[in-house]
Structures are given as C-alpha cells and as structure tokens.
Amino acid sequence: MPVNNRIAEFHDDMTEWRRDFHAHPEIKFEEHRTAARVAEMLQSWGIEVHTGIAGTGVVGVLRGTGSSGRAIGLRADMDALPMDEEGNPPYRSQNPGRMHACGHDGHTTMLLGAARYLAETRNFDGTVNFIFQPAEEGGAGARIMIEEGLFDRFPCDTVWGIHNAPHMPAGTIGVRPGPLMAGADQAFLTVKGKGAHAARPHDGIDPIAVGVQLYQGIQTVVSRNVDPLKSAVVTVAQFHAGTANNVIPHTAELKLSIRTFDEDVRSLVEQRIRALCEGVGTAFGCEVEVEYRRGYSPVINPEETAGIVGDVAEQVVGAEKVERDTTPIMASEDFAFMLAERPGAFLWLGGGAPGKDYGLHHPMYDFNDEVLPVGASFWAKLVETQMPRG
Ligand SMILES: CC(=O)N[C@@H](CCC[C@H](N)C(=O)O)C(=O)O
C-alpha cells in the first residue's frame, strides 16, 4: 500500500500499541489506563497534553512551523464495549466482559501513529489538536467534550474522524457527501403485568406474553409503516423477565435501538412504538411504560469536506481504492456532535480481509493491523495538505 514511508517504518510499533489496547479494553468513561498510555506517548514525543476532558478525554496540541494561525482537529475514540471476546488472539482481552469489538483500539493507534510522525517532522504550518475522546458507545463522549469547552480551549477550523470498516476491503477508503451514518435513539419499555404463581396464570397478567406481542408488533413498524424507499432499523436488543420457573413475573423489560436518517421517519417510528405500547397494554389490561430517549444525530458530511477527504485519500491509497460515494450504514456515531460544531468529515477505512471479516460488535471481531499505517498516513497527508508550509 503506498503509505507514508516514515510511518510504514513504525508499523511494528503501532501493531504493538494496538494489541496492548486490545488486551486492556475499557468501557465508556472508564478509559483510565488507555488515556494514561495515550498521554504518556504524546508527551514522550514532545506534544503538549491536556487530560481530564469529559473525564478520561485527552487532547494533544502540536504546533507546526509558520504563523498561519490555522488549526485542525483529528479525533479518535478510545472506549470498548461491555461484551466478552470469543476470539483467542495472543492479545485477547484480559478484562472479562470488556472487548474492543468496534476497533476503537485501532482508531486510537492510528491517531497516535500520525502524532508521532507529525511531531517528528513538524512539516505543517498551524496547530494540530489530537482529540482522544471517551465513551462513543452510548455515552456521547464527543458531546460532553464539547460541553466542557473542547473547541473553546482548542480552537479548530475543521474536525475530522475515521472509522474502520470491516465490510470494505482492507486499505480502501470510503466517504460521501450527505448522510454517512444514522441517528440513534433508544426506547426502554416496561410491561407492568401482575405477578402470580406459575400454576395459576388466570390470577395474573403475564408480562412475558404481553412483551412477546409487543415484540411482534414492533417488527411491523419498519416493514408496514416506514416508506420502503426510506431507511429505518428498530432492533429489540434486550428482553428481560422472570427469576424462577414457577413464578409468573410482575414486569418485563424490552430495550430497543432505533436508527433513522431523517426527522420525519424518526418521529413516525417513535409515534408507532408509543401507539403499539398503549394498544397492546390496553388489550392485555396492563400498563406499558415507555421511556424514549433521543440520542445521536445522523453523521452528515458537507460536500466540500467530503471532497477533501476523497482528494487526500487518492493521494494515500490511489484513486482505484477510494469510494467517493460509499454506501451509508445504519450504525451511529457521536462524531455527529462535532460536525454540528465545526466543518469537517467522517470517513471509512476498509479493514476487511480473509479471517478479518467479522462485523463490528461481533464477539470474534478484531481490528486489522495491516491498515494501521494507512489510517495514520491519511491523517498525516490531511494535515500536510490542509496546513501546508509556505
Ligand atoms: C445515546 C445513544 O444514542 N446511544 C446509541 C449510540 C450507539 C453508538 C454506536 N456507535 C452504535 O452505532 O451502536 C445507542 O444505541 O446506544
């Protein structure tokens, strides 16, 4: 892959860092070890380090030569997911119930690789802010960093983010103007049934039976209510009820993840879920409580900055490996909050390869170390082209 030669020289180092992060995954707002390692490495390369932003967030500030006053923000997320790793690489997760199943170990490493190179060369005119954020997986770490003054303390003209993409061939880069990733909402449903002895169902209101009807009704929201030419996902990701096989439980809980791209569909889905809960509850003579939380906005790339990503990517991997109108996906990203504050763009870095094609959030997923220099080289080239020396 035609990556930056100097960055390619420390591919082995980056692989070691990535595997160390992988072996020590930490979930949202608990990224203490990760943040400490990031801060230590940045400091060792002479980069000014600020810690404790949104709890465990870290920002490294590197000034290049010249007096242009330009500044750029490059963002990586550091958190892992609350799940067990099922693969068995030598650097398998040492933290039970914790796993880097979304490749944030790779995102952190690629940004560190770029930081090391740029600190060595300082071949740009302006300031680079390396933003290592906590809690992308549901904690809105990006929003909290912004609320804690990220862009006031570290002014950025533009802000950029990379996500690995195991669904794309390794070393390819995908971007598009417009929506790239969906917005994410959550719904927490509590069926308030009536507990009873398992042998006397007629004395109770079985919340499992109600929950099953709700589950089935929810499957029709996308298939029967949303315009087939538009997109939405409603996943019932958790269904909890019961403690013993001779007890009809009193309550059941369903937890939903909802993904949409536009406001009309978002509102329609919420309204249909609420109506189903009310109707099914009435039919069974019980209440279904709904807590509906609107979460991340969709990631929408402006045309100009998506074009910049395409141009830079072509210089790093060659035009044949760049998709300038890549397919959007229904996963979500709190980087949307950063894009709401500053112009910039979000892009995919392909990581798929034989044996490396488990999807994000799969218990066998593992970031493809082969693409570490590609991501770091993209970052370096972006800085060099956005803030060239005079
Ligand atoms: C608060 C919120 O919207 N949470 C979402 C965030 C999911 C982000 C993650 N990257 C994904 O796509 O699953 C949620 O569903 O928990």
UniProtKB/TrEMBL annotation:
The Mn(2+) ion enhances activity. Residues 183-278 form the Peptidase M20 dimerisation domain. InterPro entries: Amidohydrolase, Bact_exopeptidase_dim_dom, Peptidase_M20, Peptidase_M20_dimer. It comes from the Bacteria. One of its GO terms (biological process) is diaminopimelate biosynthetic process. Mn(2+) binds at residues 102, 104, 137, 163, 361. Its cofactor is Mn(2+). GO terms for molecular function: metal ion binding; N-acetyldiaminopimelate deacetylase activity. The keyword Manganese applies. Keywords: Hydrolase, Manganese, Metal-binding. PANTHER family: METALLOPEPTIDASE, PUTATIVE (AFU_ORTHOLOGUE AFUA_6G09600)-RELATED, PEPTIDASE M20 FAMILY MEMBER. This is Hippurate hydrolase.
